[in-house]
Amino acid sequence: MSAVTDTVRVAPATNPVSQSIRDSMVVAKRNLIRMSRIPEMIIYGLIQPIMFVVLFTYVFGGSMQIGNSTSAADYKNFLMAGIFAQTVTFATASSGAGIADDMHKGLIDRFRSLPMARGAVLTGRTLADSVQTALTLVVLAVVALLVGWRVGSDGSTNAAKVLAAFGLLLLLGYAFTWIGALIGMSVKTPEAATSSGLIWLFPVTFISNAFVDTSHMTPWLRHIAEWNPFSATVQACRVLFANPGQSPSDAWPMQHPVWASLIYSILILVIFRTLAVRKYRSATA
Amino acid sequence: MPGAIYAEGLVKTFGDVRALDGVDLDVPEGTVLGLLGPNGAGKTTTVRCLTTLLRPDSGRAVVAGIDVLKQPDAVRRSIGLSGQFAAVDEYLTGRENLQMVGRLYQMRAKAAKERAAELLEQFHLTDAADRPTKTYSGGMRRRLDLAAALVVSPPVMFMDEPTTGLDPRNRQQLWEVIKQLVSGGTTLLLTTQYLEEADHLAHDIAVVDHGKVIAKGTSDQLKARTGGERVEVVVHQREHIQAAAEVLAGFGKGETTVEDHMRKLTAPVTGGAKLLAEVIRELDTRGIEIDDIGLRRPTLDDVFLSLTGHVAEAKDQENDKEAAQ
User: Fold this and answer.
1) How many Cβ atoms are within 10 Å of B240's Cβ, its own excluded?
2) Looking at the partner chain, which of B78, B100, B184 has a beta carbon nearest the beta carbon of A4?
3) Residue of chain B whose alpha carbon sits nearest to that of A20
4) Residues of B in contact with A19 (CB under 8 A)
5) Where is average pLDDT lowest: A138-147, A223-232, A251-260, B177-186?
């Protein structure tokens, strides 16, 4: 072991932005390698949304009124935007649990003692999670097509609009991942991160236009649903997919869903990324 | 000119607990400081403050000539840390772990790759290099962790109980690596529960208790403070303890301690081997049969005991760790 102390190769400080990007990529790569070595995580991540597609389609389809229609086919086409959006947000719970897990292992001390960009541990993690979410969305879209979901069922659309819808979904998922990250940083155990990471998602995804037509809700609830950031993305997807059940409400996010979805997601991203990174910097693990 | 690691009046409180209560350290460049102390004495907290993981409430720290509180990022470029638990990703291979650390030390991809291969070779991990580290034994993981701390050959190293939980063979191996490192000019701060380890590796020792350094010096200085040599006698029959104690009282330079259940008597003496021979003759004359007799120098365990009032708690801590897992 004669070469243990051969050379000192500590690189000088580089441009902070490019360093931050590079470090985030290194950490993202680490998380992607991990995911590929724990394939059951990806599989379980897929089972739940697939189950939702099948259950909602066959159990609720036909007994739900969307606009003036109670046809099962209309509900199916209405539903998918909601399921997609729910899937990208529910993925944040496992993200938070992963971060909580990391924070309680010795590895975080190593990261924190390295001359790396401060936000990179979290950014790398959330980026890797987004890759997994994208993968999940692809599989889910195939399943949706198999059970009879069709874009353009309620008007005309095109490939660019469909891709834009998936882009908005990924952005929403990425923004929400930072909420998960903040929760993961704030709880004491990974177990707590899993449950507390899920609880808040139920009201957010259910007090919305995802599964039911908001026009049947009591006014105050409908109001919340229509201004819910989550609903904006769902509405935007329905518009871009040309699927039925688009809310005719006067609420601004329902009238301008694509803009609303973008603004909401970016706001959430900026706010929660700032909070999570601040928490990381002060964390004592 | 302060040393490579310098701390002055470090204070850190967690709620009501004053984990550090004014720690002062000064480690000259190229030397090893062994930080000794019982559980909860503040060893790990000291290391965490010096490695930028924790911000002390007050005090000053300089590592490799850089102010830890003012320029933590610059400090991070100049240190390596090997913590109590092997800080490696268990799903990544040994090679991937080292490459990742290299990249995060801002090395270029190619350099990180070459350095990883070098370290795997040096730490005898080449055969296991491409297996996920969760398949590694405890010793292998520790070696990998140490390798990760050495990726950039930092001028200052911190090791927090590097050999806790290792078997004797692995411990010996790790000691060799550490010696190699120090002979190359690295300054090292090492915390340990194993007094033998500090004796073996450290130039200077600082004993910490209740968040304060309560004694400093070389191993020999500390032992000298505790007292000189002692005669230890184990008598064959319990009835002879009293008689043997009388003999020792005649030769001893202090109080004779008796461990009844062991039939063992210990007395501080001066005079070395010559005196030992006299003691043996005297015991023989009185017809006291002995099982064992010897001249003992104080160990660091004795130092520890006399300074902190309790023995090192390596055993307890290991049990705690097992329970925690």
Assistant:
1) 20
2) B184
3) B104
4) 106
5) B177-186
- Sign of the torsion angle spanned by Cα atoms B287, B291, B295, B299: negative
DSSP string, B205-257: EEEEETTEEEEEE-HHHHHHHH---EEEEEESSGGGHHHHHHHHHHH-SSPPE
CB-CB under 8 Å, B77 with A38: no
Give yes or no for B115 touching A (CB within 8 A): yes
What H or E segment, with its residue span, contains residue A238?
helix A229-241
Instruction: Please name the residues in contact with B28: beta carbons below 8 A apart, sequence gap of 6 or more.
Output: B3, B4, B187
Average pLDDT for B57-78 = 92
Q: Is A34 close to B91, i.e. CB distance below 8 A?
A: yes
pLDDT value at residue A284: 54
pLDDT higher at B237 or A228: A228
B93-119 core/surface letters (b: 16 or more CB in 10 A; e: else)? bbbbbbbbbbbbbbbeeebbbebbebb
Beta-carbon pairs below 8 A across chains A and B: 121
The reply to whether residue A8 touches residue B152, judged by beta carbons under 8 angstroms, is yes
> What amino acid is encoded at B267 in this protein?
A
> Residue A118 is encoded by which pair of tokens?
């401060």
CB contact under 8 A, B53 and A106: no
Say yes or no: B130 contacts chain A, CB-CB below 8 A.
no
Q: Do B10 and B20 contact (CB within 8 A), yes or no? A: yes
Asked if the C-beta of B73 comes within 8 angstroms of chain A's C-beta atoms, the answer is: yes
Give residue A165's pLDDT.
97
For the record, the structure tokens of A26 come out as 């290194």
Residue pLDDT, tens place only, B201-217: 999 999 998 899 988 98
Choose, out of B100, B105, B173, the residue to mutate when testing the contact with A (most A CBs < 10 Å): B100
Contact between A37 and B97 under an 8 Å Cβ cutoff? The reply is no
Quickly state the pLDDT bin for B311 (edges 50, 70, 90): low
B168: its two tokens? 């004797």
Quick one: pLDDT at residue B325? 37
pLDDT of residue B2: 66
Which chain A residues are Cβ-neighbours of B54 within 8 angstroms?
Answer: 284
State the ipTM, two decimals.
0.85
| Chain A nearest C-alpha distance from B205 (Å) | 24
Average pLDDT over residues A170-192: 92
Q: Average pLDDT of B300-318?
A: 60
For residue A225, give how far its alpha carbon lies from the nearest alpha carbon of chain B (Å): 42
pLDDT for position A8: 45
Cβ separation of A30 and B89 shorter than 8 Å? yes
User: Residues A257, A239: contact at Cβ < 8 Å?
Assistant: yes
Taking only the tens place, the pLDDT of each residue in A129-166 is 999 999 999 999 999 999 999 998 888 899 999 999 99
